[in-house]
């Protein structure tokens, strides 16, 4: 491809693309992270740490999704508006610097879920090397392990806005509250979790194996999350499910009359 831009969030998928692009293309691979408030600060720090360790040509930008009503209103295609902001910014960089290709970390498994961001990627002709090569998430982790990438087993993550039910308006205060709540769980050693934001209710999604730890630390968790502004703290007995707020969405198809 000659010269590329890689959208890099710190997750294992985009990390693998960034690592290999850098290994193959060196300085001609520009690795770009959006440091907007929808990305956890810990993940932003991780991208900077990995960029230094892997000697990436890394750049942090701030995209403008949090200034757009179409995003803040949190419709079911919220991710479309977020990724549109990202790819618009990356396209501007590509045009200004004469770079032809923009790459992301979409893998084959992502194609099975509600992913409006894929529409935005198509709109900007973004290339998905992992998906094109037929890589599943398990394949990505296996190759990342083979290459000794530090975050090969990093738990699945998503932007902080994904913790807010569709139709509930998003703002920076809500994102900050969610992030502080999830940082509390991280400090207690939980490995895979979500704090779903339902107004004054924090709904914790944990793996079944870690629910006993939550019960053992229930007073601390309850006190901390209430200090962050929640009135009630609940444990979802169905456990952690990636994209659980997509449950109940109905796919629609166009029918020609």
Count every helix, treating DSSP H or I runs of 4 or more residues as helices.
Answer: 10
Poorly predicted residue ranges = 249-257
Radius of gyration: 19 Å
> How many extended strands?
7
Helical percentage:
40-55%
Helix/strand class: alpha/beta
Largest sheet: 4 strands, parallel
Strand order of the largest sheet: 3-2-1-4
Return the average pLDDT rounded to an integer.
93
Shape: globular
Strand percentage lies at 5-15%
Distance between the termini: 43 Å
Order of helices and strands: EHEHEHHEHHHHEEHHE
What report would you give on this structure?
It is built from 10 helices and 7 strands. The chain has 257 residues and is an alpha/beta fold. The protein has a 4-stranded parallel sheet, sandwiched between helices. A 3-stranded mixed sheet has the order 5-6-7, covered by helices on one side.
Summarize the model shown.
With 257 residues, the protein is of the alpha/beta class.
Topology overview:
Layout lengths: L3 E4 L4 H14 L3 E6 L6 H14 L2 E5 L7 H4 L5 H20 L3 E3 L13 H7 L5 H4 L4 H10 L25 H16 L5 E6 L2 E6 L4 H6 L1 H10 L4 E4 L22
Parallel strand pairs: 1-2, 1-4, 2-3, 6-7
Antiparallel strand pairs: 5-6
Helix pairs in contact: 4-5
Q: Can you give keywords for this protein?
A:
alpha/beta; 4-stranded parallel β-sheet; 3-stranded mixed β-sheet; disordered C terminus
